[in-house]
Amino acid sequence: MRRAPDLIPAAMPRSDLPAAAPDDNEGMPRSVNWAVRLTVLAGMAVYVAEFLAGYPGLKIAAVAVAAVSMAVWALAERSEDSRRRYSAALLCSLAATTVVTALASTTPNGGTLLVLGFIAALTAGRYASLPVGWAIGLLPVVAVVAAELTKTSPGWGDVATVSGTMLGALLIGQNSRGYRIRAEQAAVLLAQAEQLRQEQARTAALDERARIAREVHDVLAHSLGALSLQIQAVRAVLTDSGDVPRAVELLDQARRMTSDGLGETRRAVHALRGEIQPLPQGLAELSASHQRRYGSPVVFEVSGEPRALSPDAGLAITRAAQEALVNTAKHAPHERVEMRLDYSAGSTSLVVINHVAAAGPGNGPDLATVNGGYGLAGMRERLLLLDGALTAGRQGSDWVVEATVPQ
Q1: Predicted TM-score (pTM) of this structure
Q2: DSSP string spanning 225-287?
């Protein structure tokens, strides 16, 4: 069997048909909905009994078509599949109801039937697309005009009544439909906004977890790496020379390193809260601490006009300096270290230079911390997140690490 054409455009949501939910008609309970329909049917039966006198065929046809429309509407409300199946039949029955009831209302004692046409036009305006709804609303007007033109004395009053009734019902239905669609769209937008908010919160939580993980790694890799070197030195002194006073001195240094590590942990907590000290001051303290620990001369200089950096940028520069100093302690202890912080027009850069010639060929540092991790590689990733860069490599007899962040 050939499928009836769908009178509702494909772009129109199927929700434009009567919903199967109990709160059809903007919240009207199903029992009230059916009570109204039964009342209308009872009224139509009484009307047929009273006014079968003139033009009974047209009046009976109007009542019959209206009853068919109600039956089709009831079938379409049962489920989503029913709405799709009976969509074309419902719209056709509504169109037929408006036309037949409009014609019947122009007959003697038939004006009451226009109420049925009003209901049909209102329903079409609420559930059909705009072009289809207007077509259903205009059909009865055209039919009544054509019928009146065939008469010797046209009743233009009937034409005006039918036109006003049908077009008014159509406008009310279209307005109700627009309100319903806006309400549905608002509900969808609200759900999407809530979903977006949840996704943003989830992304922010993941970013914060990654930031905390980087801070934990950087603090532990730096502090524990330095402490590991000190413990190795104590072991070497005790096993090779048995120099207890020297071992005690190294243990005191290890204790100070532990205290410094706790201080660094506190600074990391402050950094996570966005509370970090000015970058030049922090790097100066870091240089002095390294010199105390390892006895390596550290020269720290600042060039350019200092300016405030974002907490993430300042922290990335500080962590890169820490990793570079730990690597110098591993590969070239007691060698001179130069650290320079440069504030240029478009960027801020830190250069750490370590003389490693005494370490022997092939023994220069690499992008790894003393505990076998990948500290400077992690710093490179941190800087890339800020659109910065990190380079490390030999320049003659020196090992140079340079970290740069944009202004």
Answers
A1: 0.41
A2: HHHHHHHHHHHHIIIII--HHHHHHHHHHHHHHHHHHHHHHHHHHHHHTT----HHHHHHHHH
Q: Environment class of residue 329 by beta-carbon count within 10 Å: exposed (0-12), middle (13-18) or buried (19+)?
A: buried
Which helix (DSSP H) or strand (DSSP E) does residue 337 occupy?
Answer: strand 337-343
Of 329, 323, 337, which Cα lies nearest the Cα of 403?
A: 323
pLDDT in tens, 197-224: 888 888 887 777 776 776 676 666 667 7
Cβ partners under 8 Å of residue 68, min gap 6: 93, 96
For the chain, helix, strand, coil in percent to 5 are 70, 10, 25
Q: In what order do the strands lie in the sheet with 347-355?
A: 298-303, 337-343, 347-355, 398-406, 389-395
Q: How many CA atoms are closer than 13 Å to the CA of 175, on its beta-carbon side?
A: 6
d(CA 11, CA 334): 77
Q: Give the rounded percent of residues in the chain with a pLDDT score beyond 70.
A: 74
CA distance 138 to 320: 78
The pLDDT of residue 349:
93
Q: How many CB atoms lie within 10 A of CB 364?
A: 19
**Residue 268: alpha-carbon gap to chain centroid:** 31
Amino acid sitting at position 158: D
Work out the number of other CB atoms within 10 angstroms of the CB of residue 107: 18
113-164 pLDDT tens trace: 788 888 888 888 877 878 888 888 888 888 888 887 777 556 788 788 888 8
Where are the chain's structural domains?
A: 14-194, 278-407
Rg, Å, the chain Cα set: 43
Q: For residues 179 and 131, give the distance between their C-alpha atoms in angstroms, rounded to a whole number.
A: 18
* 8-state DSSP, 335: -
**Is pLDDT of 365 > 80?**
no
Superfamily of domain 278-407: Histidine kinase-like ATPase, C-terminal domain (3.30.565.10)
Two structure tokens written together for 247:
């071992």
Residue 347 and residue 390: Cα distance in Å, rounded? 13
CA-closest candidate to residue 257, choices 294, 291, 222, 227: 227
Residue pair 118/165 in contact by the 8 Å Cβ criterion: yes
CA–CA separation, 61 and 58 (whole Å): 5
